[in-house]
Amino acid sequence: MLLNLVIVQIFNGLVLGMIYVLLAMGLSIVWGMMNIINFSHGLFFAIGAYLAYTIFSVTKNFFMGLILIPIGTALIGILLERTLLRRLYGLNILYQILMTFGIALMGRELIIILYGPIGKSFVPPDILSGTISLGALFFPTYRIFLLFVSILLTIGVWLFIEKTKYGSIIRAGTEDSEMVSALGINISRVFTLIFGLAMAIAGFGGGLAAPIRGVEPMMGEAILGICFAVVIIGGMGSFLGAIIGGVIVGLSQSMVALIMPSASIIVIFLVMALILLIKPRGLLGIRD
Amino acid sequence: MKWDQWKTIFQKNLSLIFILCIFLILPFVLPYTALATEILIFALATIAFDLLLGYTGIMIFCQASFFGTGAYITGLLIHHYQPNIFLCMGAAILGAAILALCFGYMSTQRAGTYGVLLTLAFNELIFFIAYQWKTLTGGSDGLRDIPRPNLEIPGLLNVNLFSETRFYFFALFFFVFSFILIKKITESPFGKVLQGIRENETRTMAIGFNTRLFKVVAFIIGGIFMGLAGNLYAMFMNFVDINHVAFDTSGKIVMMELIGGMGTLFGPILGAGIVTLASDIACAYWERWLLILGAVFVAFVLFARGGVWGLIESVRGRLKFSRPKKA
After folding, report:
1. Interface residues on B facing A, Cβ-Cβ cutoff 8 A
2. ipTM of predicted assembly, 2 dp
């Protein structure tokens, strides 16, 4: 019986971890390439979730939401990068951090104005509700779907970064963006694309997570700190690190929830501090 | 002392005297005294942060942990033991300083933006501990029933601070004391090294300074004064809210710092005043006024990175420049 419980919690931890992975990937790419710590990353997670809620309540079609959300959040991200962040390139990094912080605050307030301060519950679509049984174990269908989709997306992003021409520009830009621009590549367009891509993934993650955790205005802020911890654990600027970090955080959170539910979030930051003491660069950190 | 000597002292400390005058009349100008106290306490927290961001160039997001730790230690001590007011203060400062030492040590391990991420994560850690440890901190309900202790110096003085005006002047004493101390620190050789780190850390290291040590000490000093601010705030409010350790409080201090003008010590005071007053007025009209504050903040980041103080300075500079010279 205890073993069953542990297996179910490992499964839940993986589901949770994959949501973190989706967010940490974008955070890590944007940080590595543009050297921006994006405080509005959590906001885009929340926007994705609210978009999913809105599209689902209007059209009753969950999958249409999943297609539209990344397009929507990518467009918002590109708009913000073009109009606001762009003006601060070349200045102290501090101002870009402060800008994203201001955007996050405004976005949260805007969400409260539009949807009210109280969260809303969100039921997964009929096709994905119910459970799938494996022997004596029952797994919710939606969570299996989430795990499947997020793993596919992660592999997709990984292939994009490792195997395509654009991916090699991104990887080169993480090493030295000045050199990339000296080679005749329009780095400013690459920045816009990167930011849009990261926001698309973050929004998609929000849309996927919405049926599990519901939607509420503070969800972006709540997950931002955890994602920072994931990126620190994995090592900043490392794509694989973001994946490993996300899974470690998800698993440790769900395992501790078995023993002591109230400590399940605290343990994330304790794990982070512990790993930092042993490996100051994080597990796979490539640069300072 | 001769008149001339008095005059030089006066001229040297003109800005300090100016601030003192403003704060002396502030409680009588504002609609209620508590508003002035709030400005005072947040001004203290913001100038402490200014030492870190404005003078050393370290961006942190764990102001709330220092502030909140000071507040919770004060609250818990008074709630359970009712000790002497100075003992509370000392304990709050010590707690915040130890926390600042830990956070400073960890987040200065590597250079660059890394510390920003880390301090936010640490802030979340402290927040969730305060949130979950309900038996100690009261969780999301906060810590209630914290009567304001008397100002008691054994054998000398025993005054109650129940009146808001009395508490204001009590806080003002510590504010002015801290302000002078922080100003002295920024003008000292130690402060010059901090400014060297802000301008170019590699060069400062090359001259032979252990920059990491200096940064950790800057953390501790910042933590001490933010802890003191938290201590005063807990006694002022008579309860500790979970919000005091939350990211929102850190963000508020960051906004006060930037809107006021960083690296000036006067700017942050101005920023604390502006943000506190504006929120007090705007709250009554629109609950979601933070949207406007956010927009104002973004506008400052885009167009006026020197803050309000920077704007004043540039206007003053222009006036000086355009003044016609006597023939």
Report:
1. 53, 59, 106, 109-114, 116-118, 120-125, 128-129, 132, 247, 251, 254, 258, 288, 290-291, 293-295, 297-298, 301-302, 305
2. 0.89
